[in-house]
Amino acid sequence: MTKILVTGGLGFVGSHLVDSLADSGYDVTVIDNLCSESSSKSFMREDVTYWIDDVRNLNTYKYLDKEFDLVYHLAALARIQPSFKDPLTYLSIDILGTASVLEFARRCDAKVVYAGSSSAYGGPMLNPYAFAKFTGEQTCELYNKVYGMSTVIARFFNVYGDRQPTTGAYATVVGVFEKQAEAGFPLTVTGDGEQRRDFTHVSDIVSGFEKLGRGTWNAEVFQLGTGKNYSINELANMFSEEIKYIEKRPGEAWITLADISDMTEATGWQPEVDLENYVKEKLSQFDNVNS
Asked: Is the pLDDT score of 122 beyond 90?
């Protein structure tokens, strides 16, 4: 049986990945320190082994009682805006943590699939988060070139879906709008709302991530998105006509749009969930609850 380690496996994306892997019969172990607002013990399963610890803690790896075939590395501090306030922690977790995971995987002779970020396309120097994630990608490339490890990078584009954080500094914009629409509040849009994002459902991210785990790679970078983007105004108008504009936030790219052609050619992967249909289903659920 294939033995898989998932770092960040109690977070938003990681918990969905763990569910899919465990349901498929894999032997899954998770490391998560539960520091993210999107992480929760409620996502735990009885058929998965959990270590509540920091991926930077090298002692943790000494106690793992198995050799792993594959590592999905999602553990990271996410989101751009909080990274301005605490750059040192972001750099430590997202760079040193990644190096620690790669070194453990090297000793196991395990393949590594790394969760990158579309924030790199705005330029890695825009904010500490983008820089840290981009440096994590370069560390994956280093371990491939120097040690011959199979590493691959999947850059996520604005992930949304069940279990996404809806409040706080780590909330997704889709999650924020869902929460506000459900409560009947005006939707808060930063800047003029014309910035555009490629929104990708978490189930599509998981299916793409799993496909990459089945291959052997040389630090290739693939984009996991839909190839279609929406302005924040367009997204807001799907939920509500009542919008409140607030101050523009620094350090964010104006436009993100995935080119999934390489990913499709290499793995056959295609996204399946449509954002507009997702929002319609959510609004229908809200109506049913309130009726």
From this structure: no
